[in-house]
Fold this sequence. Notes:
Elements: H1 5-14, H2 16-39, H3 61-71, H4 76-98, E1 110-111, E2 114-115, H5 123-127, E3 132-136, E4 140-144, H6 148-152, E5 162-163, H7 165-182, H8 192-199
Helix pairs in contact: 1-3, 2-3, 2-7, 4-8
Amino acid sequence: MPLSYRQLQDILTGQADAIRQLQAIYAAMDARYAAAADRYSFECRGCDDSCCLTRFYHHTLVELAGLFSGYLTLSAEERRCISQNAQTYCHVVSEDERRNRRTPHLCPLNRDTQCLLYRERPMICRLHGIPHIMRHPYKGLITGPGCHIFEATGQPAGESPLDRTPHYIALANLEKVLRNATGIETPVRLTIAQMIVCFET
Ligand code: SF4
């Protein structure tokens, strides 16, 4: 596992300010997302092809620590159940990789269509759904579509996509600060399930 329970605990105690700043960045994302969704009159009401079935990878230590802070607030019974689901998820995904296939699996934090760590869910879970743009320093303007439910509304992306750029920059800057403060260089590329397995080691 890339990081242990102990290392993550040390981050929470020694770098509490980074976790507070992460929450502020998430709040700004939520506000901008809500405003953009409003412009499209789009509301996520869940769907049977939930984005929680998509295998997203998360790439920052600060988000890993942020999710861990929420995980610790759950009851021992909830953690046991989530951890079991996470292990099953990881096993199924490695089988998929061995067989060179990609089948959808529900995120172990999704319970009855609700996210058990909604407040701490990572950036990509917050920004998915509506058309977006990103101004990349080398690649230039990158555009992305909405989810399939948004696409089904037949609306064009128009002139009001969500600009993800300031959120990516804020998160990257915070990540840099945390990496410098902790000296942790271990790269992060983890699904939610792999993060949870990390929390239990
Ligand atoms: S962390 Fe929450 S919002 Fe993100 S995929 Fe898992 S259940 Fe869904």
